[in-house]
């Protein structure tokens, strides 16, 4: 009988470096049976709403995500069934009609700011990580990212951070740290923690293969 895939949940605030940690782990297993499930792709479908109304959505709130669909997809992957992963159109602020066909793998990384917020998702995870980075570093990284990659002004990034991102982080994201098996400070720069995680994942895979 084929053993169950290993599921790793990686959470942390915006700009914490969780994507860097995820990519580092993914790269270590490149060529092996591994896939990533980004929570950002599971924002709720808003095609029934006028565009002006979609702009008012708080994307830093747990209710913005379709966790029902993500849970369903994760359960399918754990049964070694393929899924049609959604695509989110950030220009239209709604889900695209297109999807990405994803075949099941032996290692599944679930990554997102609220990866550890939903108990149903947590219960499917073998390892839960929280990337913990100081607020000043997170806001600097967010400013650099949004101004360079998303064409936003510094003023608009700071205003959004102060009015929405920071309070949502303190209310909903920071508390999920208590569910983590491992807390990784400083994100992708913490090579020791990443190497330890890779070793742990390899051990689990070996144990399940025996």
Automatic annotation (TrEMBL):
Alphabetically ordered keywords of this record: ATP-binding, Cytoplasm, Kinase, Nucleotide-binding, Transferase
Membrane-spanning ranges: none
Primary location: cytoplasm
Residue stretches making up the Phosphoribulokinase/uridine kinase domain: 7-192
GO cellular component: cytoplasm
Gene3D superfamilies: P-loop containing nucleotide triphosphate hydrolases (3.40.50.300)
Domain of life: Bacteria
Family statement drawn from the similarity comment of this UniProt entry: Belongs to the uridine kinase family.
Pathway the protein takes part in: Pyrimidine metabolism; CTP biosynthesis via salvage pathway; CTP from cytidine: step 1/3; Pyrimidine metabolism; UMP biosynthesis via salvage pathway; UMP from uridine: step 1/1
Listed name of the protein: Uridine kinase
Gene name linked to the record: udk
Enzyme class: transferase
Binding site for ATP: 12-19
Catalyzed chemical reaction(s): cytidine + ATP = CMP + ADP + H(+); uridine + ATP = UMP + ADP + H(+)
